[in-house]
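Before a colleague's protein record goes any further, I have to sign it off. Would you go through it and say whether the fold makes sense for this chain? Take the sequence as given and treat only the tokens as open to question. The record follows directly below this note.
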Amino acid sequence: LYSIFSRLEKRAVYSITITMGVERNDNPTAGVGWLVGYIVINLAVTFLNKGLFQTYNWPYPTSLALWHYVCTSVGSITVVNVFKAITPTKLERKDHATLFMFSLLFNVNIWLSNFSLNLVTMAMHQVVRALVPGFTVLLGILFLGKGYSTSTLGSLAIIFFGVCLYAAEGEVGGSYYGIGLTTMGAALAATKGVITNILMVGRLKLHPFDLVRYTSTYSAIVLLAVTMYTGVLKESLDDIRNREPGSGVERALVVNGAGAFCLNIVSFVANKKTSPLAMNVGGITKQILAIVLGIVLFGTVLTIQSQVGVVVVIFGIMMYSRESYNDKKMSQKEADAKAGRAASLTLPIAMGPLGVAEKGADL
């Protein structure tokens, strides 16, 4: 995967960047391959999850989340400690405490998303989750001192409006309590994305494999305790044991776990190489692709309003991507200009044998 997406990133061209958008790194097309990979694998894992819940009738989302953590933990530990693919970062005790708290945020975010989904309609859940890019912008402004152009903010508003259009065809409703929890979940999702980026590009500068290794392991330990205490783990395992031989649920879980491992790795690398906001927009892009695939593969019929909403979202994504590309080029030009001014202050001086500038030296 590392080889494939790195190669795709090197071959990325402007047309791909216009579609997906990036925000970090000196190269305006940096991270495009990873962002595309994140969207594709995210979509695949979503379909795998739905297949496990519906086709195999295994309705245990909490146990599935634990399985994802276990597979990701085992996979990342194998890559780092067995194959020695990277040099692990040496962490102090306080750093481990930070990563443990971060893993709690991961678990609370998943639980809150699943729990709130039972309190509001799917349409309302989609509308509120579309606020995640807005929360990311707010966090960037309040805590990181980041600034965003009017065009970028406008593109995010267009995306949100488009999501409201296509989601409003369903029943948009829910209790105030449910809407509040869903909004809190959106804020936590944005916080998780921002902190993930900080852990990789900030003081610790953790490699994505390192961060995945610690986060998934700590998350698995916490969720294992929770599922054992509530009895959910025993119930889900009993369900598997009581099935007819050859039911296929074991193979489906293996494939699902492998997909989750790939998704976590690609997700963290893409976050590091682009930005949390680009990841948020990538998540909405995945929703649009899911709708399009539903139309193509399953003949899903959309109303005129939903079709208009999808088109509006696609326009907003393209607008955001173009602005991100232009902002990156402008930042690169400013950096090059500063480097040029700094170089112009360093004048070559021909020195004599005693270290004194010789007559006629080019000053």
Notes: The chain has a mean pLDDT of 83.
